[in-house]
Amino acid sequence: MNRARRIKTGRMNPPPTSIKIIEIKEKIIMIINFVKMHGLGNDFILIDCLHKSLGNSSFLSYLTKQLCNRNFGIGADGLILILPSSKADLRMRIFNFDGSEAEMCGNGIRCFAKYAYENKIVTKSKFTVETLAGIIIPELTISNNKILGVKVNMGIPKLRRRDIPMAGEDTPTVVDETLKINPEQIFKITCVSMGNPHCIIFVDDVQSIPVDEIGPKIENHPFFPEKTNVEFIHILNRKEINFRVWERGVGETLACGTGACASLVASVLNKKTDRKATIHLPGGDLDIQWANDKHIYMTGPAELVFKGEMEI
How far is residue 25's CA from residue 147's CA, in Å, rounded to a whole number? Predict the structure, then answer.
């Protein structure tokens, strides 16, 4: 990457052409328009690829690692691509900080939905998005032409062991199971898939947990053939949960939407909370509901940081 230039902050207007390829003195240069957004501090670079592809998965993995580097790139937890879909109104691909591709991202899809609506890619306040976790449905809350928040139908959580996925004999749920890292570190875990794997651990105080020490050990534990996100949660009461997360392929982040959803499911399965609660994440709050239709609904904000262009 030769250059990344911040243009301005504020309300987004439809970009001219998101990706341009030019030749200067026999050198091919790709000029890419991008925006930087965040959902409760979980931040992403978004690129409109509706009319031109950025490249294959190998190149996208490489590009993600370059762009997300906080010292030598733009800096972000992940890269999100806006793509056409034959199954839904739009398609979202998301790559983690380490270049791996994720199935879904709760904070990311709120940013995706806000970007798509404000840039007139979609005109409906409720639309469908194809992801590797299936079809996800975001719905924008709008007042006086301003987006106040995004409510997302995150689908039905998967509870079977093989669907998370986890190693071992298949069971209908994984609730209060013992996971041993070493003789000194033994945890009781509940596991849930929100299209991506989550391992939830109940603790007495999330602030005292060495997330950066325990998180990667569990992420890479043999129990989890596709690795896992790891949530440490403290039940405050039946309607409130304190939360910290180690995200697969990223590290500790300020927020994780799918993790917040999985944490509520785990809390309900362990009879610790009601089916609707506020999750207090380091970056802010998410309202999560496990509704009677078995779907999980997540409501929270999405914000523009800045937009710019880069040359690669």
Answer: 45
Give residue-wise pLDDT tens across range 98-118. Answer: 999 999 999 999 999 999 999
The region, left, alpha or beta by phi > 0 then psi within -120 to 50, assigned to residue 219 is alpha
Q: Are 33 and 19 spatial neighbours (Cβ–Cβ below 8 Å)? A: yes
- What is the DSSP track for 136-184? EEEEEEEETTEEEEEEEE--PPB-SGGGTT-SSS--S-EEEEEEEEETT
First vs last Cα of the chain: how many Å apart? 4
Give the whole-angstrom CA distance, residue 255 versus residue 24.
42
- Specify whether the CB–CB gap between 198 and 231 falls below 8 A: yes
**Closest among 154, 19, 153, 3 to 83, alpha carbons compared:** 19
DSSP category for residue 100? P
Question: How far apart, in whole angstroms, are the C-alpha atoms of residue 108 and residue 148?
Answer: 16
pLDDT digits (tens, 9 = 90+) for 139-195: 999 999 899 999 999 999 999 999 999 999 999 999 999 999 988 899 999 999 999
CB 199 within 8 A of CB 224: yes
Q: In angstroms, rounded to a whole number, what is the distance separating the alpha carbons of residues 291 and 299?
A: 13
Which amino acid appears at position 112 of this protein?
Answer: F
- A 10 A CB-CB count for 222 gives 8
d(CA 249, CA 219): 9
SS3 assignment, position 246: strand
If we measure between CA atoms, which residue out of 92, 76, 91 comes closest to residue 37? 76
Q: Which residues contact 183 (CB under 8 A, 6 or more apart)?
A: none
Which of 308, 229, 309, 300 lies closest to 41, judged by CA? 300
- Residues sharing a CB contact under 8 Å with residue 208, sequence separation 6 or more, in sequence order: none
The set of catalytic residues is 105, 256
Tokens 């250059």 sit at which residue? 3
Tokens representing 42 are 């979980």
Residue 267 has phi, psi (to 5 degrees) of -65, -40
